[in-house]
Amino acid sequence: MNTKCICEKLNISQKSLRLYEDLELIHPKRSQNNYRDYSEEDIIKIREIVILKELGFSLKEIKLLSKKNSYKHNTPVKSLYFQMKAIEQKLTELESVKDTLKDSVNMLLDKDYNESQEYMKSIEDSLQKNKVMRQQWIDKWNFDSWALNYDKSVLENEGDELRLFENYEGIISFIRNRIIELNAKNILDIGCGTGNLCGPLSESINILGMDQSIEMLLICSEKYPNMKLKLGNFLDEPFREDSFDIIVSTYAFHHLDTKEKVKALGNMVKLLKSKGSIIIGDLMFLNENERNKCKDDFISSSRRDLWEQIEDEYYTDIESIVHEAEKIGCSSSFKHMNNFTWILEITKK
After folding, report:
1. Which of these, 31, 24, 65, lies nearest to 39 by C-alpha position?
2. Full-model pTM
3. pLDDT of residue 47
4. How far apart are CA 125 and CA 119, in angstroms?
5. Residue 254 DSSP class
6. What are phi and psi of 230, to 5 degrees?
7. CA-closest candidate to residue 120, choices 106, 134, 131, 104
8. Which residues contact 326 (CB under 8 A, 6 or more apart)?
9. What are the CA-CA distances from residue 146 to residues 77, 154, 213, 215 (Å)?
10. Residue 306: strand, helix, or coil
11. CATH 3.40.50.150, applies to 147-348
12. CA 235, CA 226: separation in Å to the nearest integer?
């Protein structure tokens, strides 16, 4: 596509296009008569630049982010995902400013408040904090590179003194057989990763895999083309109530804190058909007493470092989540597999 068409299509000036090219943000090829010929990837990149500028990112910041984004394949999906994450960052910044402005209004309404200029400093501090937050986000931004090595890491279990993924294939196989045993036809796999659990079933069962990592989903798509995929997580509002025979999740639930677990449980129950089941294979303790015993064992063995690794996550308290399930009319059963891994099954009545 030539320069004139690009400018009309994207409502952008030729001057802007030249500037983006000078900054090496875009790299249009040249036709035989030496005119610029913009590819589909160039168009996607220009749209991305326009969005980021609208969000307040400088061209310097956009160039830095551009260097980190290597769209070797799945360019449209990755670009849109990146724009979505940039918008989330901007919303965080705006929420911070909004809260500061509200506090400032309340300061000025306070009849006992005398420092009339202090509110200005609060606003300036908030804006400065946002600049720091944005720079940190830019510095840390990267597509989920762990996804590329996920299968290898869980299967080989190297360097894992806690043996969190020990017998990973056996646990996955156990849950997969349970799905078959229940004769399920429609499955939702939350935190599906690269599709190791439900992918092998996707040729004969309707599987919807959900994950918050775009890289995981793209790898899953390549491995199991019959799986339907959705970007999302446990805390998303139910998108299709009473739709699934089984909801499964492996090694993802422990990323949620206690309140989030309760919300996630409620969301999953809404998604389930009557008599449907939630099957969670994850890192858990039976109860608080067992958790405290484990803590004492690690500390008495001078391995506080391993206990701190456990405390970095939110291992499920089985008795607590079973109680929450009972409160919303569900029955539960559970089975200890090995080390910290349990399988918890919750059935909707």
Report:
1. 31
2. 0.79
3. 92
4. 10
5. G
6. -145, 135
7. 104
8. 332
9. 18, 11, 10, 9
10. helix
11. yes
12. 25
**Phi, psi (rounded to 5 degrees) for 193:** 60, -130
Joined tokens for residue 341: 């891994």
CATH topology of domain 3-68: Multidrug-efflux Transporter Regulator; Chain: A; Domain 2 (1.10.1660)
Could you state, in order of their start, the residue ranges of all structural domains in the chain? 3-68, 75-142, 147-348
Q: Which residues of the chain have pLDDT under 70?
A: 70-74, 111-117, 143-145
In angstroms, the CA 9 to CA 47 distance is 10
Name the nearest CA neighbour of 169 among 71, 250, 70, 271: 250
| Residue 335 and residue 282 in contact, taking contact as beta carbons nearer than 8 Å | no
Pick the closest to residue 72 from 143, 175, 137, 160 (CA basis): 143
Beta-strand ranges (E) seen in the chain are: 29-30, 36-37, 186-190, 206-211, 228-231, 244-250, 272-285, 316-317, 330-338, 341-348
Evaluate whether 3-68 and 147-348 have a shared fold: no
